[in-house]
Structure formats: C-alpha cells, structure tokens
Write a structure and sequence with these properties.
Layout lengths: L14 H52 L24 E3 L4 E5 L3 E10 L8 E8 L8 E5 L15
Antiparallel strand pairs: 1-3, 2-3, 3-4, 4-5
C-alpha cells in the first residue's frame, strides 16, 4: 500500500475561540454603555447649570445697586424674569426657571430641566445665595441646595 499523507493546516479560528471573543465584547459593552449614557446626561445637564450663571450675575449686580436682595426678584431691577418658554435643544432650561425667592439677605434660584431624556426631564438645580455679613466683602455666597433633584436622580448626581 502506498503512504498517503494528508497535510492538515489550521485555516482559521475554532468556534470556541470566537465564542470567547464575543463573550468578552458583550461584557465590555454591558459596562461601557451605561457609563457612556451617564456621561452624556451629565454633559446635557451642564446647560441647566450654566443657565444659572447669568441669573446669579444679575442678582449680584442688583444686590450691589440696591444694597439689599429684597428688590432682586424675577423680572425686576435687571434680573431676568422666570422663563415662559423652553428652548429647542435636547436639554434646555424649563418653564418657571429663575429667581424663585428673595429676602433682604438671601436669594433662591431654581433651574428646571426640560429634556427629551426621561431621566433628565424635570430635574431641578437649586442655588441658595446669602449676602456676606456687614463689614465683610458683602459678596453673595452661592450654595447648591440639597433639595435639588439632580442629586438623587437615577444614575446621578448630574449637578
């Protein structure tokens, strides 16, 4: 009989090797997708936080001009009125945002998110401002209120 030699060379990957690669990609995707979603939500919510900056500046200028925060209400003395319409961006400042309360030494700014993302829609960013004591710089110190719902949102905090 003749000797027949069959040359078997590996021509590709085995099924088990391919299944292992697919499993690794699946695990990485399961971790990466939620992290990416939270990252993009935080980026979208930054518009709400930035929207408060112009209102803070207007309240600070009003306080310097008036000598008190009492008259620094929404729509008075250069302070913008509460928003009555929402922007066209995916996440924008919602209706009713602005200065929501003042006393002689304190001011409250409430920003409401309007978003097509159900997680962000309706979240609030609340800032409390307090005028410094007499004889100091009299600057307004702004602190985020723990009642802000952007702190407790699923996947948050976003502020």
């Amino acid at each position: 009989m003749s000797d027949i030699r069959i040359n078997k060379s590996q021509a590709g990957f085995t099924l088990i090797e391919l299944m292992i690669v697919v499993a690794i990609i699946g695990i990485l995707a399961a971790i990466a997708i939620p992290s990416y979603q939270n990252y993009t939500r935080k980026a979208r919510f930054s518009e709400i936080v930035q929207g408060a900056s112009s209102i803070k500046l207007a309240v600070e200028v009003c306080a310097q001009e008036q000598g008190t925060l009492t008259n620094c209400t929404a729509g008075a003395n250069g302070v913008p009125p509460l928003t009555t319409a929402v922007g066209g961006n995916a996440t924008s400042v919602g209706i009713g945002s602005g200065v929501t309360g003042t006393t002689a030494t304190t001011a409250t700014i409430t920003m409401i998110a309007n978003s097509n993302d159900a997680t962000l829609n309706g979240l609030t960013y609340i800032l409390n401002g307090t005028v410094g004591a007499a004889g100091t710089s009299n600057a307004i110190s702004w602190v985020r209120d723990p009642a802000s719902t952007c702190l407790t949102a699923a996947g948050g905090p976003f502020c």
